[in-house]
Amino acid sequence: MRKIILQSLIFAVTLAASPNVFAQEANYDESKVPAYTLPEVLVTQSGQKVSTVKDWETKRRPEILALFSEHVYGKTPTKKLPIRFEVTDLDENALGGKATRKQIRGYFTADKSKYMDILLYLPNAENNPSAARPVPVFVGLNFAGNQTTHADPAIRLTQSWVRNREDAGITGNKGSDESRGKLAKRWPVEQILARGYGVATVFCGDIQPDRPDNYGEGVLPLFYEKGQTKPADDEWQTIGAWAWGLSRAMDYLETDKDVNSKQVAVVGHSRLGKASLWAGAQDERFALVISNDSGEGGAAITRREYGEQIERINTALPYWFSGNYKKYNGREADLPVDYHELIALIAPRPVYVASASEDQWADPKGEYLGAYHAGPAYALYGKPTLSSDTPPGLEVPIGQKTWTGYHVRNGKHDILLYDWTQFMNFADFHFRQK
Ligand code: GCU
Questions:
Q1: Residue 18 within a domain
Q2: Coarse DSSP helix, strand, coil percentages of the chain, rounded to the nearest 5 percent
């Protein structure tokens, strides 16, 4: 009882100390968005103006990257794990002959107790000249197991813990036959293959389970110092681990002669879109980066008080971002970075941001502005980007032939064929036409 009282007291004090009330209703009224000032992409912390690629690459970019590591996602460990990849399945006649399917297990530990499974489909070249190997590939994490991304019965069921979800046929926190293909609408594999792209996916839970108090599981403990049981305040947590996992998938893709590893696009939806942006920011091997409905902690400007805000995400999902990020609960203006700078870190590599009209929680306008305000970093390289600070109308993709593309799909928080079609158009320009 005393403990409970004490806890409530601490909670009340915390509330009183923060200018925003924890339980605040999210703002969805554009006229109520207070004015804000963004940190400038091309001005260093010490106020120095950056006007050359050299100063950007040697001073400002590393500075912004360090700020995101320290204050937002937490530091990614520099220690390298000796990961072993084994191709466990190869079918050159998959999906009725349209594809080559490979499944690759990447072992994180020598005792093989921890691993991730990569599912890779490559288009077969028959009747499809754009499928000549090596092919460009989209790589992204999935929410509920590789087997949910396509009904192909040969896909290995994940053995990792899965969050229960009805739409994915997951109960008992386990991957099952029932879940096969349940989220296939998010992975239009056949359409991707038909356009000459390969597609690779990994279950995010193979890397780090998506649940609170996961500190003793997944890959996090593989990097602890002796006696450590959870990440320190400036160390990575779940989103950082997922981004790291994407880079490990890239390690494999670089070894596969059927894959054009110079043309790998990293893609992610929602929480996994936050991870794809963070992976793309840190790992310059990703040639193109796609964020779909990534919202708060992803593409959306956090200083815009609209939809989800820092305090809410840190409270509902305290295991995603670093301990340090909690210091910015209700204090967006004090964060030394904002998310346009996350996108700027990717320059001069192209970035595509997508929103959905009914996904106001993710703040579509804020996501657009995240991409728009990254522009100055691209300008240093002479690369054109979105030219207006006003988002386009519904399903009017823009910037498809520049270095920052954007669309807002009509409908709900999701990643669908419409979104993928725009991603492929954008990739066509950068990988094929330019
Ligand atoms: C929650 C969370 C979002 C996140 C989303 C998702 O809504 O608040 O930040 O993007 O889940 O991953 O679907």
A1: no
A2: 35, 20, 45
